[in-house]
Specification:
single chain, 25% strand, 153 residues, alpha+beta
């Protein structure tokens, strides 16, 4: 508890989001054992200009790759975010951005996704940020985007 309060206070002083008390990450700690890379290491104009890798859980893998089937409820897509200078994404992960599919119509303002940012210490720093949904909504109008994933094939 004391560590959590210290991290929250430090985040307030530095302007960085701190842990969100009582909210667990949607991403399992052992995700790397079962998730599959669907986009290799590349720079991202969003996500603080970090280099990113995108992975899908087993349920999201098929829909992400074939772009024909809807994502099953509960399926997860995650962006691992790396330092700007880590051009091959082989270093330390700085944070994770997670999207988990919800029931259709459960949260239309969020495109029926639950969004999270998780920091290096595996604490949730943002839960259902309006910023995530708005950015994905903006790219969702593009014909190349699939269900708000903001990706080209």
């Amino acid at each position: 508890m004391r560590r959590g309060l210290l991290l929250l206070f430090a985040g307030l002083l530095t302007g960085c989001p701190g842990p969100t008390p009582g909210v667990d990450p949607l991403l399992p700690a052992d995700y790397a054992d079962t998730y599959t890379e669907v986009r290799d290491c590349r720079s991202s104009g969003d996500h603080d200009l970090h280099n990113i890798r995108v992975l899908a859980d087993p349920a999201a893998l098929g829909p992400y790759l074939n772009r024909m089937d809807p994502f099953p409820v509960g399926s997860i897509i995650v962006k691992e975010e790396y330092d700007f200078g880590d051009s091959d994404c082989s270093g330390e992960i700085l944070r994770w951005t997670i999207m988990q599919r919800l029931e259709e119509g459960e949260s239309p303002p969020d495109l029926d996704w639950h969004w999270q940012d998780v920091n290096q210490d595996f604490f949730v720093t943002e839960d259902n940020s309006e910023r995530c949904a708005q950015c994905h909504f903006d790219c969702g109008a593009a014909t190349t985007s699939y269900m708000g994933t903001c990706t080209d094939p």
